[in-house]
What we know:
alpha/beta, disordered N terminus, single chain, disordered C terminus, Rossmann fold, three-stranded mixed sheet
Amino acid sequence: MGYSVGVTSFLRGKRILVTGATGSIGSEVVRQLLKHEPATIRIFSRDEHKQYLLQQELGDLPKCDMRYLLGDIRDYQRMVRALEGVHCVFHCAAYKHVPFCEYNSFEAVKTNVIGTQNIIEAAIVQGVERVLLISTDKAASPSNVMGATKLLAEKLMTSALHISGSRPIRFASVRFGNVLASRGSVLPLFCKQIEAGGPVTITHPDMVRFFMSIPQAVSLTFQAMERMEGGEVFILKMPVIRLGDLVDVLIDELAPRFGKDPAKIERKVIGSRAGEKMSELLMTPEEAHHATEEENMFIVRSSILVPGGQPVTEPKGGAVKDYDSAKLSPLTKPEIKTLLKEVLAEYFHFASLVRLSN
């Protein structure tokens, strides 16, 4: 699908901190960073057990200085200490589950908004060169708390250029949709339900979502880190999948693996959860007005004046008006099967590592 990127010299020799580094995206950032020969990787997260698991997985593989830092992005002073001497930050830490954020709204604000501002201010103080926020399609025209907090986090990254003074620091965001096999995504849930013989619970079979694999998402994230000029939102293109089709393919593929008859596994529609939509936007019409379209991504320039640059006032992406999952053709079942082949192999490898460690 043309998502892979070669090893770049940009990250070689850099000291890099990854927040939320033991999560699905953060840990893959760490794994792929090792291919780029950085000087130091600082793994920053709240969960000591997951840090232990990642340390055991990596073993003696790293050829750079690995630092395992416990802490919370809500703690500004901790971020100041953690960012000392760092060149680049991949900010992956966030509350991401839509229903939990709906019922615990200010907790989402504390982490996704205040935590992001803490990173911005600490990065400025410590002379960090670049900070990249990992965001979500739910930040585009948000209808839920999680999306709203991530949109505000994106806005903080753009406006941070106006509080950095004379320091040559760059801030940007990268936005993508659902990442297959990430922790808390539908794929691990469906796999467990199929293994148990069903039923497989689905919110609505006609829901359409943007999906991509974790390695694909992270590879394009590295491009954004290298190319950022300041204030952009990099919107990564990804295929659209109808949830009902995803469930059908998973049942056909996995039921025999678990000794089950695919024809006997029930599909149970449970309805939308709090804050969910039938389709998702990755880019709004307003953002498209400031966007440049490339093969694998859109780059949305800031609509406000960026220090040292000019705001984009004319569309750069040709005929593109938005990037809406409801307006794109979903993958066919054979295409979904091809996409899932590598993803499932990675998922079961990781699941086996977790079981062995417990």
